[in-house]
Amino acid sequence: MLVAGLILPLAMTAGTAANAITGVFEDVPDDLGFTEPSEQSVLLAADGSVIARFYAENRIVVSSDQISQPMKDAAVAIEDRRFYEHHGIDVQGTLGALFSNIVSGGTSGGSSITQQYVKNSLVEQGRTLGDDDLVKTATEQTLSRKINEARYAIAVEKTMTKDEILTGYLNLVQFGPSQYGVETAAQYYFSKSAKDLSYLEAATLAGITQNPAKWDPVKHPDNSFERRNVVLTTMLRDGYITQEEYDAGVNVPVEDTLHVSRQVAGCGAAGNSAYFCEYVVKDLLQDESWGKDAADRTRQLYRGGLVIRTSLDPKKQEIAFNTVTKHQPVDDPSGIEASLTSIEPGTGHIVAMVQNTRWGTPNETDDRMTQVNVNVGKTMGGGSGFQTGSTFKIFTLVEWIRAGHSGKDVVSLNADTTFPAGTFKASCSPRSAMTSWRVSNLGWPGGANTVEYAIKNSINGGAAHMAMQLDLCDIINDAEKMGVRLGNPDAEWNYGPSLVLGANEATPLSMAVAVSTLANDGTRCDPMSYTTIEDQDGNVISKRSPKCEQVLEPDVARQVTKVLQGVVTPGATGDKARLADGRPVAGKTGTANNDWHAWFVGYTPQLATAVWQGHIEGNISMLNSTINGRFYREVYGGLFPAMIFSEYTSQSLEGVPPASFPAPSQPNIPTRPHYEAPAEEEHEEATEEPAVEEPDNAAPEPAEDPENWENNGNGAEGTKVESN
Length: 724
What we know:
This protein is α+β, with helices and mostly antiparallel strands and 724 residues long. It has 24 helices and 20 strands.
């Protein structure tokens, strides 16, 4: 018989058999080329705290000194008692197993720890490389596989110490349904590191590897109790524990020793940072600066043991989530969503990204769960963006200043009129301007006043008359340069005049980037979600630096900021966005038609933030809504978004010394005659500007409505967008 001839007559002595078998296996490779075992990757916040873990196999590779001696002893006792004596093959165990297999027709049993290390290494190599044939070959129940495994085991013993082999084995083998390696197992079952395992805990773990499903101590504690005691018996037999230790442990229920710490893989475990987590994952997989391609980057994320350090500030993230959900609760019957994205000017670091929804797939028990990140566009896990309302007046103001005009210039505030086709200019899309456009003011009678006044009170007529003197394409160009992006990558900009009042659908993240450009003296820094990627050996394989570009002249940004500071003053539309400590702040409110969407985008020199409120599904009115138990006839940017911005920014910068915005190098001199602001308006530098006469048709302040107290002098704005 071929098999009998191969393994030699069983009547031979063990020594003779060993010599003969070793002779058969003389032709073995010197270098097996095993890959590093798959290891979980971890996503860290800026302070080093864990956001999420990713793995195909939940494994944490540790060194020998991070595994307790009782754990090593237990594995040797139950799996390979002659481990320290043989040279890769336990001849006695192998001969006995083969004889049994010849008689029964089976193919299992008798593998040494070294052989098991080889088998698991080959399986792991196949999984890592995506080579199903290699996995199949390494696990098939054939004598040829056993022989090849034994050959490799001899080679391993020539190049690795016993301790290295045992450590490698304990890092590879499966200890549960999704627990690979002894460190992950120790953390899962006992909430401790492998270096701290007791002999009783070690015996439980060592008993699992033979059949992880059957001996699972969580699902089958009775089975595990029986198996653990078998391991204890072998440890006593081989002198690894004393009789006293055996007696003390053998009757202890397995359940009494467990302290299970369950882990959830991926962004589902990231809590209120789940949407940021998912954004980082998409950012990683699309980043061509590391990895061969997206498939390789995916493989490394789930098997490479990467350490990804992100920009997220856990303190600001917690403040953001608590503030957003305080004003717009997660399960509010209104069904309205709200979000906040915050960026550090000068770096582009995303320090907070939240929304008032639970991350996940909608199901029968929770149909409001969603994986749509409302802060970003479709390519990054979001939607099509949202109409920005009057926040987009920022870019008309930017182009106004950039074109040489002034915040002190007088413009008509007249609205409630239809601008005929051809009134506006769009050089890049002339046909877009060849349409009529009706604009209305909410509570403003018209007249004329300064650009500062028009922006402060968000008067549509003022913005429209400013845009009449500009090129609409230049306004969009400024917005794009500053970082504004449409949510739908396949959509095209609407260059019609309604763009002035926010008809285009942009993402909150990109609006935060845009105002961070103003905070950073006209230099845009692209949003950054992570800073470094390290491999499992601690080598930095990707390092990101801020990617910044000067897109506006500093003095243009400063003059725009000076005007936008007026928005966040008593009685202006951004009244509720004022900061608790009185620190300098600038920003803009925005409300889309029919209260579809409400915004506040604002900034200090240290922090730029966009707050959005509306419906994920798109243009659904928030008029006559009951939010957090209170009825609101109108929901607008100067209400919830402004309050959220104020509370978030005030708390996030608590203890940080206030910083002032740099003053424009040139006085804000009007380019045409204008009037002095009404007495009730406060202008910090009014005394520095030339005195001028007030025109007869200056717009009066709107009358307060005792029946609409929410809007009286504290943030009602005039944005009504008529599509063109």
